[in-house]
Amino acid sequence: MDALPARARAYVAVVTLLAMLCLLPVAHLPWPGIPQDTRVPWWPVVLLAALYAGCERLAASRLVAGPHPGGTFHPVLLAGAFLLPPHAAAWVALPGALLLPVEQRPYPARRLWRAGQLVLAVWAASGAHGAAGGRAAVTACDVPGALAAAAVAVVAFCLVLTLLDGGVLAPASGALPRDGRTAAPAAWWRQFVRSLAPLAVHGLAGLMMALLWRSAYGPVAALFVLLPMGVSWWAFAQYHRERAAHRATIRALVQAVDIKDGYTRGHSERVGRASMMIARELGLDDARVEVLRFAGILHDVGKLGVPTRLLTKDGPLTPEERRVIELHPEYGHEMVRGISFLGEARAAVLHHHERLDGSGYPYGLAGGQIPESARVVAVADAFDAMTSTRSYSRARPVPVALEELRRCAGTHFDPRMVVALVRAIGRTGWHPAVTADEPGPAPVTAPVAPVTGRPGARR
User: Fold this and answer.
1) Are both 44 and 173 inside the same structural domain?
2) Does residue 434 fall inside a structural domain?
3) What pTM did the predictor assign?
4) Residue 36, SS3?
5) Cβ neighbours for 422, distance < 8 A, ≥ 6 positions apart
6) If you ran DSSP here, which 8-state letter would residue 360 be given?
7) 175 shares a domain with 29
């Protein structure tokens, strides 16, 4: 724990101490609906604890490893909360949380934190479930009553996890939020809402386990509930592994462009961000928003086929040099045409320098002939080019760049895309990073005359 700030060490220690208290069979805890007799048969606790540890170990293995290994397979924990009193249900989480490997230092502190967090969450879920009358409903196989009580338990489980997660962020960073009354609660609420839906699915699986456990079929039948959950987890993990591979491919291509053309370092990421802002403002679905982000990130990947001396040349280009640079959309399309997950992003890579009036390149397309994805990226690319310092031009202020986009809307750019970017920036703002290899130029306060002779410089 030495690598953690003192405040974070104290926070982890307090959570660990509270978790240890939750493991004690204290008879006088005021949980309504829970018998005061704390004697619990040991075999359900051991069986569920071993089952949870095994499921987590399998989930963290290379066979089905997802993006968040460990601490993610909660049906067994919630089944324990539905079947056992709070202190016994808390024991179900302890072995798996302590035995699973952690990926970052300090290892002991992270193990204790994970164990304490899960013990407290399961203890609270079991108590809330008993207080809502869930114990009797599960024993009597009263499905409506059991569903209502399970919903209360899932909310309590999610709430404890969210509060503890939010509470550890400020101590771990060594500073508390600037406005604890607004910023922290808002962030916690967003995290709670995002976590509730997947935990609700896990809660339904845990409830099915508990009902079958108490039915005439017994604990063996309850184990079969985990089979479809395991299959769904495997499919979910494979999906995230595939997405991670996609991102790694894109990151490698972008890094190669950034290394080759140092003056535009970070340009691809910012164009991807601006493209995503435009897509969201247009009301596109999440899948298309992601594809257009990829399109913005990869729009200049064809520069890998252009000589570096042309990309970094100071001053105007000769006609021959200009024709060479104007080949980069076609180079880029050839590089990404076999990457199927990019979808319409491939068309954006090829056509992002086309203009509505047909004066663009490489094919001189006009109007509706230009794919929508290319029209989005064209606006995002022009905006970032104008607001970034290059070897041949200084950065323009954001309002000046937006005014230039409005002036060229209808001739060079699609007016819908321009309006969408203006609205998005007006709502969220834009804070471009320095892209030139210099120590941070001061923002320009007046329009800068466009530089001619370089593709994309004059928009």
Assistant:
1) yes
2) no
3) 0.56
4) coil
5) 402, 405, 406
6) -
7) yes
Give me the number of domains the chain comprises.
2
CA 353 to chain centroid, in Å, comes to 31
- Using DSSP's 3-state secondary structure scheme, residue 413 falls into strand
User: 443 lies in a domain?
Assistant: no
**Domain that residue 198 falls in:** 6-224
Q: What is the pLDDT of residues 138-162, one digit of tens each?
A: 888 888 889 999 999 999 999 998 8
Same domain, 404 and 320: yes
| CA separation for the pair 64, 58 (Å, rounded) | 7
Burial class for 82, CB neighbours closer than 10 Å (0-12, 13-18, 19+): buried
For each successive 10 residues of the chain (459 residues), what is the average pLDDT?
A: 69 88 68 54 86 77 48 80 90 85 75 89 92 87 88 93 75 41 61 85 88 83 74 70 78 78 75 93 91 90 86 81 90 87 90 93 92 95 85 78 93 94 90 45 35 38
DSSP 158-171: HHHHHHHHHHHHHH
C-alpha span between 228 and 234 (Å, rounded): 10
**Over the stretch 334-384, which tens digit does the pLDDT of each residue have?**
988 888 788 899 999 999 999 999 999 999 999 889 999 999 999 999 999
Q: How far apart are CA 192 and CA 267, in angstroms?
A: 34
How far apart are the C-alpha atoms of 248 and 324, rounded to whole Å? 29
Predicted pLDDT at 61: 61
Report the residue count for the chain: 459
What is the CATH number for 325? 1.10.3210.10
Say what the alpha-carbon torsion angle 205, 95, 139, 212 is, to the nearest 10 degrees.
Answer: 40
Q: Which residues, 6 or more positions from 44, have their beta carbon under 8 angstroms from its beta carbon?
A: 80, 83, 84, 88, 219
* Encoded tokens for 133: 């009358």
CA dihedral 335, 339, 343, 349 (to 10 degrees): -10
In a domain, 441, yes or no: no
**Burial zone of 68 (CB within 10 Å; 0-12 exposed, 13-18 middle, 19+ buried):** exposed
Q: How many CB atoms lie within 10 A of CB 154?
A: 25
